[in-house]
């Protein structure tokens, strides 16, 4: 049962990464155009907003500039945080050796850097250093409940079953977040 639960968590984690990739890299591109991008033969030029390498510039813009639609603000600020919450939540549940704060922060930052760099290199969007910070914050927010639950259940020697239960909870949370955002 425990191995089955871990395999299920790994499958859910893979699905999460595929969904995250779709929403970060291919949010405005059809499946046919995705294949053309993967073969390095895009059908036409895509407009990519300018890149941002200045910390807090985009965050400040969304928080304090009055003429930006509220939905755009929420999608960009909250969406960047929420998109990485499952990473921080599921990573230590699947890989028990990764149950350290600095490891989860590094993994969140690294995955975010991978996506942001990919947006810049493949012209699928813009590189934004603020997205790196918000995504890493999301990983941290996802990790904290796992860490506190882990401490509680390790002291009671029930951590293996707890990893499976927390993982299934994370998958449910991911499904709800995806469904709510795109209803």
Automatic annotation (TrEMBL):
InterPro entries: Teicoplanin_resist-assoc, VanZ-like. Pfam families: VanZ (PF04892). The chain crosses the membrane at residues 7-26, 77-95, 102-120, 132-150. Keywords: Membrane, Transmembrane, Transmembrane helix. It comes from the Bacteria. Residues 13-144 form the VanZ-like domain. PANTHER family: INTEGRAL MEMBRANE PROTEIN, MEMBRANE PROTEIN-RELATED. This is VanZ family protein. The lineage of its organism: Bacteria, Bacillati, Bacillota, Bacilli, Bacillales.
């Amino acid at each position: 049962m425990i191995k089955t639960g871990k395999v299920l968590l790994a499958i859910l984690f893979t699905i999460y990464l595929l969904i995250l990739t779709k929403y970060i890299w291919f949010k405005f591109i059809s499946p046919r155009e995705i294949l053309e991008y993967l073969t390095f033969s895009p059908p036409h030029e895509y407009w990519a907003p300018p890149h941002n390498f200045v910390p807090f510039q985009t965050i400040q813009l969304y928080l304090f500039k009055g003429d930006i639609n509220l939905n755009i603000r929420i999608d960009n600020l909250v969406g960047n945080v929420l998109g990485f919450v499952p990473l921080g939540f599921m990573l230590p549940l699947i890989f028990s050796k990764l149950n350290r704060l600095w490891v989860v922060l590094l993994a969140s930052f690294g995955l975010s850097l991978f996506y942001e760099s990919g947006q810049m290199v493949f012209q699928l969007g813009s590189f934004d250093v603020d997205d790196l910070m918000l995504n890493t914050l999301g990983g941290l927010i996802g990790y904290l409940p796992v860490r506190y639950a882990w401490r509680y259940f390790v002291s009671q020697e029930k951590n293996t079953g707890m990893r499976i239960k927390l993982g299934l909870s994370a998958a449910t949370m991911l499904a709800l977040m995806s469904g709510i955002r795109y209803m």
